Please model this.
Amino acid sequence: MAAAFVGVSINTFEREVSEGGWPAGIPRGERGGKLTWDRRAIEMVADADLGIVSEGVDHYELARAKAAARRAQNVKR
Model:
């Protein structure tokens, strides 16, 4: 659903996540095998990439979210 939310195919979304373009998925389920995404985090990244500054956006937290997404790509699941 995250891919559809941003308007791209699943393959494109997975590639963009692996490249650090979108936040990493959140492991869910008993073994963490199902990934879900925080819609608000995706919206914040999209807004920042478009130069849209929303009221109440904490740019420090946005930078932390992007860095965490990049680090998560280096963790083997």
